[in-house]
Amino acid sequence: MTGSLTLAILVVIGLLALLAGTIRILREYERAVLFTLGRFSGVKGPGLILIFPFVQTIVRVDLRTIVLDVPTQDLISRDNVSVHVNAVIYFRVVDPERAIIQVEQYVDATSQLAQTTLRSVLGKHDLDEMLAERDKLNKDIREIIDTQTTAWGIQVANVEIKHVDIEETMVRAIARQAEAERERRARVINAEGEQQAAQKLLEAAETLSGRPEAMQLRYLGALAAIAGEKSSTIVFPFPVEFGRFFEAFARSSAKG
């Protein structure tokens, strides 16, 4: 009797173990790639699925977006500047079958591809482009990676360059270059201002020369401005006509 009870208990335990090995529960964001005797049998889930122990096996695949930090890469820009760049890549599995069958460890494979693509793309650009055109570079890198990972059932949603670090000596050199550029622009703006002012003065002189009475009014306006400053010295402008009169008189005297 005791032996029969023990056997019954063992049978029940065996059935429970068999049942536990048969039932799998997958979350909403999970899929199971099913293999029967080593051959692909389909993709199951989410929810409750049943498998045959010792005959079928599954590989769980997470369909959520994976945020992968690309390690810092040392590269040389097109203008021969040593740069340290790191980035972050966002991707997700859209085809669990290919993600498991076509590539081993698709996360590691995507990481390695992102690193080589980052070096390859940024090495073709100058440092100024890396700093000023990140959106364009991010788009180029994403498109290249996504083209390669499509065969693995992986879709790359976005790539973002996080940091572009350069040597301290290059930082100082860039600061000097920026300062020189600002000084150049200041000189150009100053020269353009002087040119415009000279042009306006020339136009004003041409206008005043056509109306002598306007020149006299200008003289009176200048005297009023000087008197308003409470200066002890007042300079009276000498009319140009008087100078011409004295010049003509001197020439007539010389001829006489």
Automatic annotation (TrEMBL):
It is found in: Membrane. GO terms for cellular component: plasma membrane; side of membrane. It comes from Phenylobacterium haematophilum. It is a single-pass membrane protein. GO terms for molecular function: peptidase activity. Belongs to the band 7/mec-2 family. It comes from the Bacteria. This is Regulator of protease activity HflC (Stomatin/prohibitin superfamily). The keyword Hydrolase applies. GO terms for biological process: proteolysis. Keywords: Hydrolase, Protease. Residues 21-178 form the Band domain. SUPFAM superfamilies: Band 7/SPFH domain.
